[in-house]
Design a protein that fits this description.
Blueprint: E1 2-4, E2 8-10, E3 14-21, E4 26-32, E5 39-45, E6 50-57, E7 66-73, E8 82-90, E9 102-104, E10 108-110, E11 114-121, E12 126-132, E13 140-146, E14 151-158, E15 166-175, E16 178-189, H1 198-201, E17 206-209, E18 221-224, E19 237-240, H2 249-267, E20 274-277, H3 295-298, H4 320-334, E21 346-351, H5 353-364, E22 369-375, E23 386-387, E24 390-391, H6 401-405, H7 411-416, E25 418-424, H8 446-453, H9 457-472, E26 476-481, H10 490-502, H11 507-510, E27 511-517, E28 521-523, E29 527-536, E30 542-550, E31 553-562, E32 567-575, E33 580-582, E34 584-586, E35 589-590, E36 596-599, H12 608-618, H13 620-623, E37 625-626
Parallel strand pairs: 2-8, 10-16, 19-20, 19-21, 21-22, 22-25, 25-26, 28-36
Antiparallel strand pairs: 1-3, 3-6, 4-5, 4-7, 7-8, 9-11, 11-14, 12-13, 12-15, 15-16, 17-18, 18-20, 23-24, 27-29, 27-37, 29-32, 30-31, 30-34, 33-36, 34-35
Domain PGF-CTERM archaeal protein-sorting signal: 606-627
Keywords: Signal
Protein name: PGF-CTERM archaeal protein-sorting signal domain-containing protein
Length: 633
Amino acid sequence: MSIEFHDQETDGTYVVIESLYTEADAEVIIFHAEGDREVYRRLILEGGVELSNERIELDEPIPETQLISISVQPPEGGGTYGGSRATVTVDGSRETPPSENTVRIDHQETIGTAIVVQELSTVESGQLEISSASFTPTDHYTEIELAGGETWTDELVELSQPLRDHDYLYVTLRIDGQARSQDRALVTAGVPPVEVDPNDVLPEGYEHVPADVEAGFHYPYVLYRPAVEMETERPLFVGGLNSPTTADRLDLLVALHTHAASFVRDVESLNVPVMIAGFPRTPEDGSDLVQSLAYEAVAPNRDIDEIATDAFPADSLQQIDEQTVAMIDDARRRLADERYDVTERVHMDGFSSGANFADRMALLHPDYVSTISIGGNGAFVLPLEQWEGHELRYPIGVADYETLTGREFDIDSWRDINRFIYLGREDQPEPGDRGYHGIAPWGENGRIAIEIFGKNRVTERFPTTKELYEDAGASAEFKLYEGVGHRTSGEMRTDVRAFHRNHMDAQHATFDFAFDRSHDRIAIGKPITVTGSVENLVERTATATLTLRIDGESVETTETEVAAGETADTEFTHTFDSQGEYTLRVNGTAIGDTPVEVVERSEASPGFGAVATLGGIAGASYLAWRRTGESDT
């Protein structure tokens, strides 16, 4: 145990601990070292977590200058790990300058030309930016220059352009161009935020699915349907919510919808349906048990009362993995009427706590998951029951897997899951920084986890996980990104999309198609030709299966093998035997903007076929239907 607590001056409502680290769980007691020995604050510190320059708000203010003691002891009492003492000088008469750059906004109803910022404080000069956090391209509603030392309370801020009827807003405090504090809220016009139908705030293609306890889930999810024509089968892409604490169901709605917007933007080019599970991080869930699928959140009948609130009762926070499975099943049912089929197993993506969510779902339900991309963590669940004499229980290993799931652990199914594991080279807290020791949330297994994986993400945990996964025969790719800290970069997101595309059998994700047709109007008995090119987008040889349908009836299917990165030509020819208008589609995609008109030979002008063919060639730019991006709309 180590602690640094120095003499300081405050207004009496808080103290600052310069550093504190304990390997075991501990109770920290802050109290008057003399006289009545009044206790000002008690808190529980999880073993393996380090505090650095931590401001601790007190339950009771220090009334005057005093010698203050901090005692660090086992939560159950019976001794002490150590402590420290320092003189805290209290000057309640002076105005306390802001101690940090921070901003807060509440959900609110407005007239559309101004909003209220509830709290703002600046240590340095900077800018306040108010922008849309919704699904459409970001609108900047205003930007205000701020001086250092400013404090606001319930400040009315005029906007440079009016708000939409309902919108999600970001208020961002920037210092030297970097976001130092950010908050978000639902701002509505003409109706209180709590009365807004969630689907009224979502754009076309998105559906807010409310909690359905009878179907097996206590929380909502967002379902995104891509606007596509191609009929090829595709996976459901699943993500979890990685959010700050949510005080109530309205906070959760805002967190879910804004996260869904950014998540879908990242994978939109794959043109797959997307599901975002809306599980909360309650104000009491400091260890992030729910959103990271910790033991407490997945074990049957586990007491989780300590993180429950009135808005998020204990029974709703249990077996989060099973609730996710129920959401996936429900989403599949809702997608049943789409023109494409949905694969049996899903793809998942997550970063930081979201990476734990994806990794642990894949471990607990390998029959539901085929492919995951996970970043921002160096250590993940191992397919081992023991390591060097240590029993490895969830979420380190699988010694208690059957107790948790009711099934034996299937190492072959675990190996079959495709994994892309990535990390920024700079995502490595230095000794003394907060987060240096933490592997969250490993619970009581934390010391074993540190012994196995080490403390630093990049130099210890990441290579250790890579080595142990390779030894276990995992199907996994590992990649470090230079110059990137605990965030996702553009290069990371590009590689994540390429990885998922490379592990889809879906034709729309594997190939880029371009098709032309030779005629808009043609005589009975004359052949019409559909020509096309097929570009392989993935890093392997793949077979393109193309089906020409006329008015929904299959008339010809071809298969073309295309090497990685190469392009092949393909052609269909068809002769009509009756007049009328016919819609041509290849794999569900319409060829041409209008149906082909087929007429009797007597209706065609002399040289009709030749003229039409020449016209089709000369007007290629007009007739061509070119697939760009996903080749599916």
